[in-house]
Amino acid sequence: MTTDCIFCKIAAKEIPANIVYEDDTVIAFRDLTPQAPVHVLIVPKKHMENIAALVASDDDEKLAGHIMKVAVKVAEAENIKNGWRLVANTGEDGGQTVPHLHFHVLGGRKMLWPPG
Ligand code: 5GP
Ligand code: ZN
How far does residue 98's CA lie from ligand 1's centre (Å)? Predict the structure, then answer.
């Protein structure tokens, strides 16, 4: 747990969130400012800043695969059968605003490309 990290606090249940999935290693909750009818964030409970940190050890590579599986579970549970998008904004130019790794699951509307 990193002090003052909002997603660490959500994972520790210190601040509330609309949780849709949780297990020992990850938590998934609805985005506060949804950009699509379905907008869920998948967050590792352990604090790490980005994908580079995620793949930095063998254990975390396993976690990377697990997050992909959780994304599919979330999409199935949310019934976004027509398609969905998995996004990890990384760093300032990538549009990352919360420096705790998270994957956006977006769906329920036709997504645009390029994302801008
Ligand atoms: P990023 O811009 O880093 O890719 O995504 C951060 C996301 O976290 C944004 O979509 C933002 O709306 C969401 N967010 C920021 N603070 C909170 C919060 O306290 N609760 C929830 N549920 N979402 C948050
Ligand atoms: Zn954190």
Answer: 7
- Of 18, 83, 59, whose CA–CA distance to 44 is shortest? 59
The model scores a pTM over 0.90: yes
Quick: pLDDT tens for 47-102: 999 999 998 877 788 999 999 999 999 999 999 989 999 999 999 999 999 999 99
Give, for 87, the enclosing helix (H) or strand (E). strand 84-87
Strand partners, 70: none
Nearest to 29 by CA among 100, 92, 111: 100
Q: Are 69 and 86 in contact (CB under 8 A)?
A: no
- Closest ligand 1 atom to Cα of 88: 4
